[in-house]
DNA sequence: ATGTCTTTGTGAACGCGTGCACAAAGATGG
DNA sequence: CCATCTTTGTGCACGCGTTCACAAAGACAT
């Protein structure tokens, strides 16, 4: 759903539905937790509850991977962890670069989930010369002049963009030109990439706006049945054409400091 | 898709499909950019290109809001900005609390996109006493002991959780008990909430794993037709039950420092 | 006023994802 | 070896979302 490409060819890769792929990491996390508690097997019912999904859906998802369960018993936790890891490509080592080491970039660099699952932060890159050499999460930041060389020397195919919105597309272009074929974009912009390159987007502002929509709906349903609703400071309605002036100083401020 | 509730009642709220709601912020961003450039009208084709979607989809989306376009001309930018803002509830003032002021929490607090669109960071909350009083993004961090009072005093209905995984559910419970009905969760955990509370999840690790899947598939298709693929350091295959030991020190490390 | 041209709004078909419900498969006990 | 019980794997139906394709609507020129 968030592949970002305008013309996604319904990538039912080797028969595994996109929706299923999106849930595999969820299952993997639940299974890893069980594995740590040395639980040998789980039923689809239990695992589904742990992952927060329907048990029928889970069984169907697993059926795309093959028949890894035992009827009357359930699934072997260790075996399933391995199969899902392999399916997701996590048995490989994926070097990743993070471009734009502001607040968010630093948070990502410090994110433990990277290292623990086949991902390795190969380099941190920022356009600010003052950042160069400064260690973040134990890794020295490199200047973006060296971006292409870094990509090629490390065989990087996955890039994370955490720059301001304005810098995102140029950075994206350089990443792609240097050989990156998968991009995780945190900048609030639509990225244009050539075919064959995957883009996934994470947008904090959008998530909040969706929440606000539902929140407003809730408040509307309970309308004046309680006084404890949200601070209903409804702004005055603009007269058909004067809305954007008070919309904010800038369309969408980047999630990070200038890179 | 990420509402989080196990049993989502297909919330076709007032006839607006969930998928459409998820795209409205995208349109709004593109429209705001046009508005800043003082563009008076746009066609569905132009706007769709800017938002990265199909033009027919865009028109259908707008049709759920009403007939705001003029045939032969297009849509009035300012008017549409207002209509979408109103539909999303962004003409209201939404006080938001961020719980867990680690790297990620700080990045969120500094995120300009919050303030610019009806969202106001009402408070930053952390469990670490050493953080209390320390200003982050110009706002002093408050201790989580005061969580309930902060929520109620500010009429907060939207909470952002950026704590470690272990702390997320307890924090969530306290937020809900204090009156929060919408939660944006950055912790890598499935949150359980009562009916009527919306949860949206943002999970960096999952996004990366989905990218890795597609990346692996690409590499598999080009299999040994080039040598420049990803660093294909395929780990040795475990003998059916020994996978989780090298899976990483901890199931899923929180995105932030302990709160 | 009339015709042409552009662009919207939407009816209809299609495909994907979800969930039910059940048969098949294997474990387990006697 | 047979009966019973549990749990998987899946056929099927349904609903949502996407896309095509076109008629209706308005602008604009003559």
TrEMBL record, chains A, B:
Coiled coil: none annotated. It comes from the Bacteria. Residues 26-65 bind DNA. Keywords: Cytoplasm, DNA-binding, NAD, Repressor, Transcription, Transcription regulation. The keyword Cytoplasm applies. It is found in: Cytoplasm. InterPro entries: CoA-bd (IPR003781), NAD(P)-bd_dom_sf (IPR036291), Rex_actinobacterial-type (IPR058236), Rex_DNA-bd_C_dom (IPR009718), Tscrpt_rep_Rex (IPR022876), WH-like_DNA-bd_sf (IPR036388), WH_DNA-bd_sf (IPR036390). Residues 89-190 form the CoA-binding domain. The keyword Repressor applies. Belongs to the transcriptional regulatory Rex family. HAMAP family: Rex (MF_01131). Modulates transcription in response to changes in cellular NADH/NAD(+) redox state. This is Redox-sensing transcriptional repressor Rex. It comes from Streptomyces caeruleatus.
């Amino acid at each position: 759903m968030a592949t970002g490409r305008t013309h996604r060819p319904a990538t039912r890769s080797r028969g595994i539905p996109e929706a299923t792929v999106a849930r595999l990491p969820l299952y993997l996390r639940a299974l890893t937790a069980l594995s740590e508690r040395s639980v040998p097997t789980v039923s689809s019912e239990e695992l589904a509850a742990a992952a927060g999904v329907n048990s029928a859906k889970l069984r169907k998802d697993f059926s795309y991977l093959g028949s890894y369960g035992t009827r009357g018993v359930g699934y072997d936790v260790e075996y399933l962890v391995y199969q899902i890891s392999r399916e997701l490509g996590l048995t490989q080592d994926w070097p990743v670069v993070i471009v734009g080491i502001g607040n968010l970039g630093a948070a990502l660099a410090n994110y433990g989930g990277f290292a623990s699952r086949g991902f390795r932060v190969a380099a941190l890159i920022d356009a600010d010369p003052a950042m160069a050499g400064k260690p973040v999460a134990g890794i020295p930041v490199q200047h973006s002049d060296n971006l292409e060389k870094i990509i090629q020397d490390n065989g990087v195919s996955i890039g994370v963009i955490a720059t301001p919105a304005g810098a995102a597309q140029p950075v994206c272009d350089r990443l792609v030109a240097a050989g990156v074929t998968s991009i995780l974009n945190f900048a609030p912009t639509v990225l244009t990439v050539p075919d064959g390159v995957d883009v996934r987007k994470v947008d904090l502002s959008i998530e909040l706006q969706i929440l606000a929509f539902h929140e407003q709906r809730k408040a509307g349903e309970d309308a004046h049945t309680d006084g404890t609703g949200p601070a209903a400071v409804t702004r005055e309605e603009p007269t058909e054409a004067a809305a954007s002036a008070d919309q904010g100083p800038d369309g969408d401020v980047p999630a990070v400091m200038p890179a």
